[in-house]
Amino acid sequence: MRQAAQLWAHARQQGQPTAGDKTIDGDMILVAQAMTLGVPDIVIATTNVGHLSRFIAAELWQNVTPS
Fold this sequence. Notes:
By secondary structure, the chain is mostly helical. Helices cover 42% and strands 9% of the residues.
């Protein structure tokens, strides 16, 4: 959650918030969890590529081929 809070704050400082003023949204929690896994070349399958891809590789879930 600390990593998610840092990502949320960074996005706000850059003028590109992903949630409201007092809300750490699920996007930042998901990105932080993926980052802490330490898996190289991880890609998050999502419908919200715009927010997530600013922090980690993200692709529309329809375009992700399971390995």
